[in-house]
Amino acid sequence: MDYERSVCPVLKNPQSYDPDTIDLQNDIKQREYWLTCLDQMIKKFIPKASILNPEDLQATEKAEKSYQTFHMLTEQLKDNPRLLNPLSVRTLLEFNEDNLRTNNFKDAWSIQKQKETALAFNKFSARLKYIDSIEPFRDRWLEVVKGVLAGNVFDWGSKVVSEMLEKSPNFDLLDAMKTIQPRPWFKDDFELFVNKIETCPYKKVVIFVDNAGIDFVLGILPFARELLKLGTKVILVGNTLPALNDVTFKELKSYLVEASHQCGIFRNALNENRLQCLENGQRGPCLDLTSLPEELCETMLTTDCVIIEGMGRAVQTNFYATFTIDCLKLAVLKNEWLAKSLGASQFFVICDFQIATSST
Predict the structure, then answer these.
(1) Which residues pair with 276 in a beta bridge?
(2) What is the mean pLDDT of residues 217-230?
(3) pTM of structure
(4) Which of 94-103, 326-335, 349-358 has the weakest average pLDDT?
């Protein structure tokens, strides 16, 4: 990644910022759990590798080699947790993605992402039509936010979700809405957020997006569309490098073209430069706000709200991050251990809206 790394300019206390929610070096129980959990997750990729990469005759062999390297690291970390510094879910997942690239998996989930995104776009117009049929402002926005949260369930990096999707391949957005926690949510600032945008819409919003497929197409895009209808400029931010089934910057651009073919609001916003996409500078599925591209940081200087979506970016990292502008964090807790460590349960919802505070 050839870019100048910069610190997010709207972090409230950048000098004390730590992206990682859980310190695996100093918490033995957390370390034991996450080393085992991630080892098992990455091992499960071996039988999937040839299915996900059918044109690569060495896919299974390469996946096995990648896993052995990761497994060796996890075994060493049990005895010497200082070997990877900092040691966190973020750095372990980054190591895994780097390791896959070393073994020539350029984008291991590319075909799966293409398939799921195409299927989601088949339902895109109907989803927009349904949202448009909801007239009360608050009710429409509740449906849109619930769509983002339900869409965020579709994460192949989650063990419980991947097993669910394998057993029920027709599992869709409505099924996911029934799976997540009903309101009131574990962290429920929806009313505060909707009151803010109804009385004083934002001028420019930056959204850090998560998964391809249903998550992005039926969750994030309708959310962005409602912001555009309020006159807000929207910047969608995708991963610089591939990681699991997350949306990349390159994919973002093609997805927005498809959205513009189906919806005039997106078409006009793209033509008027009110809808843009940028890269986040990350090589894994989490988010380190001290390592952003300069272009994104420059954009954030004139942004009045940042939205962070997904468990990796808003819970595993940045759960305690505070900003000098408004911030909305949206995620579903898809890991029981993580949920319990926060005092919640699996599939509980984070809708955390923080009003801007001055920097210190």
Answers:
(1) 235
(2) 98
(3) 0.97
(4) 349-358
Strand 187-188 vs strand 305-309: parallel, antiparallel, or unpaired? unpaired
Q: Could you tell me the two tokens for 112?
A: 């799966």
Please identify which residue in the block is written with the tokens 């930056």: 206
Q: What is the 3-state secondary structure (H, E, C) of 204-259?
A: EEEEECCECCHHHHHHHHHHHHHHHHCCCEEEEEEECCCCCCECEHHHHHHHHHHH
Distances in Å between the Cα of 322 and the Cα atoms of 180, 188, 289, 293, 352 are 26, 17, 11, 20, 11
**223 burial via Cβ count (<10 Å: 0-12, 13-18, 19+):** buried
- Residue 7 contacts residue 326 (beta carbons within 8 Å): no
Q: How far is 318 from 18, CA to CA, in rounded Å?
A: 8
Instruction: Measure the CA–CA gap between 98 and 170, rounded to whole angstroms.
Output: 32
Query: Token pair of 11, please?
Result: 């972090």
Span of 142-146, 154-158, 237-241, 271-275 with lowest mean pLDDT? 154-158
Helices within 20-179 (DSSP H only): 28-43, 45-52, 59-79, 89-102, 110-122, 124-132, 137-151, 159-167, 173-179
In order of 97, 239, 281, the CA distances from 249 in angstroms are: 16, 6, 10
pLDDT at position 4, please? 77
Integer Cα distance of 46 and 43 in angstroms: 6
- For residue 275, is pLDDT > 60? yes
pLDDT of 359 over the 70 cut: no
Please state, in angstroms and rounded to a whole number, the distance separating the CA atoms of residues 279 and 6: 13
**Assigned token pair, 179:** 């799976």
pLDDT in tens, 2-17: 667 899 999 999 999 9
Sheet containing 349-354: order of strands: 187-188, 349-354, 326-332, 305-309, 204-208, 233-238, 275-279
CB atoms within 10 A of CB 51: 11
For the stretch 41-76, pLDDT in tens is: 999 999 999 999 999 999 999 999 999 999 999 999
